[in-house]
């Protein structure tokens, strides 16, 4: 592939590996962005749109998009802040995956029990900007200057090993399930930020040329994300119980009510949040609803 083949194409950055990679591939499939990625090639042309996908490390995507080299990208909110690119990109959409928290962690058995105990000591992290800001504020509150301020050291990975190796009194690292932290004998004493994957677009004006294609792709991805969050709940209920059933399943706009052949009964169909499905079904049964069915959505526009 030569540079000419990218001419006029919207460039869309996707994490090339790691935690976000597989989910990004299902988002692309759900948005019908078709491509064939050749081994070892990090740029590939989309077959059914004037788009080229650029596979990059998640942490590099904010600056590529922020500086306008790439028009659109998927990455973590955490790395956007860490690379200080928040004001150079627009976060179009939260994607509902890659959810985790950047947390301050210390040895469970040690003497440090609070974030304040860690102030002025040694912290190791891959997020030196965010950790520097976080502990900088605490250093100011404690009026620490020079050598007495909290020392933040960067490592590229395996951050959780730093305390056991004697490099740090505490670390700042991402926590999802907490398994890594617990396995390293650490526990969290503070949260720097909560994060999830986001769709970002460049604020550089030259890329307004692609505005309508960006809107189309954004709307398609919105549909894929909504489909993963919602399900359809369908049930039958006696008409005199309808008000209390509707209160349980109000839908996004309103539920669809259809008459049943059985006298005094109606069928209700409504969008519900997937994570609330079990509680909704319990509440519907309690209100007298019957034949309750839940359907997953493949895709939607809401
Ligand atoms: N345990 C996790 N659970 C959920 N999301 C995570 C988790 N760890 C990281 N992420 C998200 O995924 C992004 C990329 O992290 P990941 O560790 O997969 O990167 P990577 O490309 O493998 O980089 P590196 O080589 O630096 O580890 C993070 O910035 C964060 O937004
Ligand atoms: O709370 P948990 O569910 O255990 O997840 C947290 C771990 O996930 C991330 O690392 P990852 O596994 O992506 O590998 P890395 O250290 O190579 O970045 C993060 O840096 C933690 O080590």
UniProtKB/TrEMBL annotation:
Xref: Pfam families: HisG, HisG_C
Gene3D superfamilies for the chain: 3.30.70.120, Periplasmic binding protein-like II
Spans traversing the lipid bilayer: none
Similarity comment: family membership: Belongs to the ATP phosphoribosyltransferase family.
EC id: 2.4.2.17
Signal peptide span: none
NCBIfam families, alphabetized: hisG, HisG_C-term
Keywords: Amino-acid biosynthesis, Glycosyltransferase, Histidine biosynthesis, Transferase
Catalytic reactions of this protein: 1-(5-phospho-beta-D-ribosyl)-ATP + diphosphate = 5-phospho-alpha-D-ribose 1-diphosphate + ATP
The protein's name in its UniProt record: ATP phosphoribosyltransferase
Residues covered by the ATP phosphoribosyltransferase catalytic domain: 58-222
Coiled coil region boundaries: none
HAMAP family (UniProt xref): HisG_Long
This protein's record includes keyword Magnesium: no
UniProt pathway: Amino-acid biosynthesis; L-histidine biosynthesis; L-histidine from 5-phospho-alpha-D-ribose 1-diphosphate: step 1/9
Every Histidine biosynthesis HisG C-terminal domain range: 227-299
């Amino acid at each position: 592939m030569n540079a000419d083949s990218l001419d006029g194409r919207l460039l869309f950055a996707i994490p090339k590996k790691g935690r976000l990679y597989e989910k990004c591939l299902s988002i692309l499939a759900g948005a019908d962005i078709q491509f064939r990625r050749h081994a070892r090639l990090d740029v590939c042309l989309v077959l059914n749109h004037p788009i080229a996908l650029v596979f990059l490390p998640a942490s590099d995507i904010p600056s590529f998009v922020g500086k306008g080299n790439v028009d659109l990208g998927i990455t973590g909110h955490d790395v956007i802040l860490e690379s200080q690119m928040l004001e150079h990109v627009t976060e179009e959409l939260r994607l509902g995956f890659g959810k985790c928290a950047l947390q301050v962690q210390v040895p469970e058995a040690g003497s440090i029990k609070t974030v304040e105990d860690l102030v002025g000591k040694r912290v190791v992290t891959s997020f030196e900007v965010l950790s520097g800001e976080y502990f900088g504020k605490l250093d100011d509150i404690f009026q620490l200057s020079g050598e007495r301020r909290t020392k933040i050291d960067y490592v590229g990975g395996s951050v959780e090993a730093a305390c056991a190796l004697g490099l740090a009194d505490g670390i700042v690292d991402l926590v999802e399930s907490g398994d890594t932290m617990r396995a390293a004998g650490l526990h969290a004493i503070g949260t720097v930020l909560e994060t999830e994957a986001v769709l970002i677009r460049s604020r550089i004006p030259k890329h307004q040329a692609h505005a309508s294609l960006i809107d189309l792709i954004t709307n398609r991805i919105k549909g894929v994300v909504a489909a993963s969050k919602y399900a359809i709940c369908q049930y039958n209920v006696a008409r005199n119980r309808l008000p209390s059933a509707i209160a349980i399943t109000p839908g996004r706009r309103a539920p669809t009510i259809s008459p049943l052949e059985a006298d005094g009964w109606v069928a209700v169909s409504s969008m519900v949040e997937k994570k609330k499905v079990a509680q909704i079904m319990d509440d519907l049964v309690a209100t007298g609803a019957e034949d309750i069915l839940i359907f997953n959505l493949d895709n939607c526009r809401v």
